[in-house]
Amino acid sequence: MVCVPKLTPADAVAAVRNPLAFIADRWTPDPRTVRRAALAALVMSVVIVVTGGAVRLTGSGLGCPTWPECTAGSLTPTDALSYHSAIEFTNRMLTYVLCAAVGWAIIAARSEKPYRRSLTRLGWAQFWLVMSNAILGGIVVLVGLNPYTVAAHFLLATALITVAAVMWQRTGEGDGQPRLLVGKAVQQLVWALVAVTLLLITAGTVVTGAGPHPGDSGDVERIKVSWSGVAELHAVFAWIVVSLTFALWFFLKGIDAPQGPRDRVRDLFLILLGQGVIGYIQYFTHLPTILVGLHMFGSCLVWIGVLRVLLSLRERTGVDTTADLPAQSYDAVSASIAGPR
Question: pLDDT digits over 7-31, tens only?
Fold first, then answer.
């Protein structure tokens, strides 16, 4: 049996004053646990985007016509409301699952030994992005699904995915100074890829704001541009991203770059191929709901793929932060800061 220490009054006061420090003093997670926690936060940040898309594509954006309550005087849908209310309410409830995943990532990062402030900060950045987007989501409902607020809602979710992906990457690295694995020309090409991908994602939000899926069956304001014209611009950005990725792979192959960056570029290229097929099919079949949902999921994967390419251009090794730790503590936790070799 495991002996559980008694909780003294002093312990209770310490837990109330600083619960994260209290947990960290009594728990040292395995490095794999920290990495899994970061991955769970990343997965949930994608799930919330996909379910938010389902709300829009099923016309359930105003299924709960107010916020933070679902209806006036009720936090949950009433019997008088339709299945649209259940869909919108479910998406709202998934925000709490996302908060739990981010909270687990923060606690795991804070409890890791040696303590890595960079990981904890990334976890808290996710928390504040979730809170900000929850408030913005409420504003979206209160203004009747204004397409510009909907676009901002998606872009803020993309920012959350960015931070979650970076934290996941950092859990597998040390805290040493980054060492570049490629030259300046490759770095510039990758930053161009990042910039065009952001334009691609932004254009996609405009397509959504002008397209035939307003998010509700009622009279919802739309962005007053030709959605087909913006869709064609979106496709142009997509082809530029594909071309840059293709050129980058050949460039890395030609200079005999490390395997890591080449693998990440290959993965991105495969994701782009799948996303491109879905994009063209949905365009020529007049945006069927299921394909639009898959395309939204694909856009998350594309952005994560681009970020992984960017982060693969350097490596971080471990640094000796154990000088003041007992020898037995160092033995227990040294693997948590092991960087790529």
Answer: 677 666 666 667 888 888 888 999 9
208: which 2 tokens?
């959504």
Reading the block at residue 194, the tokens are: 């990042």
pLDDT tens by residue, 296-321: 999 999 999 999 999 999 998 865 34
Give the dihedral of Cα atoms 223, 152, 63, 293; nearest 10 deg. Answer: 80
| Cβ neighbours of 331 (radius 10 Å) | 11
Residues contacting residue 187 through CB under 8 Å, at least 6 positions apart? 180, 313
> Cβ distance 301 to 275 under 8 Å?
yes
Task: 253-258: list long-range contacts, CB under 8 Å, 24+ apart.
Answer: 255/182, 255/183, 255/186, 257/181, 257/182, 257/186, 258/181, 258/182
pLDDT 10s digits, 249-291: 988 988 888 899 999 999 999 999 999 899 889 888 887 888 8
- DSSP, collapsed to helix, strand or coil, labels residue 113 as coil
User: DSSP state, 5?
Assistant: P
User: From its phi and psi, is residue 154 left (phi > 0), alpha (psi between -120 and 50) or beta?
Assistant: alpha
